[in-house]
Every structure is written in structure tokens, then in C-alpha cells.
Amino acid sequence: MFPPLFELAAASDDVKTIFGNPPRIFPFGEAPPNVTRPYAAWQTIFGSPENYLGQRPDMDSYSVQVDVYGKTADSCRSAVTALRDALEGSAHITAWNGEGREQETRDYRSGFTVEFVENR
Q1: Euclidean distance between CA atoms 58 and 69, whole angstroms
Q2: CATH code reported for the domain at 5-50+58-119
């Protein structure tokens, strides 16, 4: 019932180089206070079972929003690229959700939506 985003990202050497080991990639869309940048926060924004008339679902699909935060635009974009590369072998990026600056921290933010389809 939960997408394997962290597990896929943590298996990537590029992700570990940029986000640390273990990677600073946090579920539920939140990170701890004063976390080192860059970091990512992710949350499932939609999910559904693959329903059938004659049997229980055997697959689930998820839309996951990923937001990456960095001290500089370059560090943020490099982190997004590493995550994209780590996930695309097992999931599909379906949207680039824009870039911006956080009001309070002035961190750079860039995000995307990734779609997972997982066997149960």
C-alpha cells in the first residue's frame, strides 16, 4: 500500500552522494527542523487498487508528489536530477511541478509527480 520511493532512491549511489547515507528523503511531505540541504519530502497524493469483478486487486497505483529543497538553484536541480534518474527505472515521471523559493527559508524548491504501479 506504500510506494517504494525511499527504497529506490536509497539504492542509488548518486542519490546517496547528494542526499547523504541514509538519504535525507522524508515521507508525509515534511522534513525535520534544521535538516541539511539538499533534502526531499514526498507524499502520496492519490492511490487506487486495480479492481476486478471476479477477484481481489493484485496491483496498486500511486501518484507521489516529490519536492526537493536546496540552498542554491544548482544544488536543488542536481538533487532533482539524481532522484529522477533513480526512480525512472521503476516508475514514470508524469509532471514537473515547477520551481520557486520558500518564503521563510528562501530555500530553492523544485518538484515533480511520479507514478508507481506495484504488484501486491
Answers
A1: 35
A2: 3.30.2000.30
